[in-house]
């Protein structure tokens, strides 16, 4: 198991001001920022509902200085007989393999 994330990353709950940075991270892998702005924004506003998702959901970001370098979002669910489901986990390529994803989880 990996050790704790490096101290230079800060983790906090995401808010609507983080959606643009989250969309940019997703778009670096697939799709456009416009697509992810709408999709992530709707998810956090409870306007997009994955299959069997319950109302409760959470999102967290990892920051290096003032820059968002990763995020995780998930929700409670009844899908697959699970209690919760991770919707997204993204880490900027230069920050991978440094414990950021583990820190977000």
Report strand order across the widest sheet.
Answer: 1-2-3-4
The average pLDDT score comes to 88
**Extended strand count:** 4
Tell me the radius of gyration: 14 Å
User: How far apart are the first and last residues' alpha carbons, in Å?
Assistant: 13 Å
Task: Describe what you observe in this structure.
With 105 residues, this protein is α+β, with helices and mostly antiparallel strands. 25% of the residues lie in helices and 34% in strands. It is built from 3 helices and 4 strands; from the N terminus they run βααβββα. The chain has helices at 19-27, 33-44, 100-104, and strands at 9-13, 53-64, 67-77, 84-91. Strands 1-2-3-4 form a 4-stranded antiparallel beta sheet. Helix 1 (19-27) packs across helix 2 (33-44). The mean pLDDT is 88.
Short description, anyone?
With 105 residues, this protein is α+β, with helices and mostly antiparallel strands. The chain contains three helices and four strands; from the N terminus they run E-H-H-E-E-E-H.
Set down the secondary structure blueprint.
Layout: E1 9-13, H1 19-27, H2 33-44, E2 53-64, E3 67-77, E4 84-91, H3 100-104
Antiparallel strand pairs: 1-2, 2-3, 3-4
Helix pairs in contact: 1-2
Essential attributes:
single chain, about 100 residues, alpha+beta, four-stranded antiparallel sheet, globular
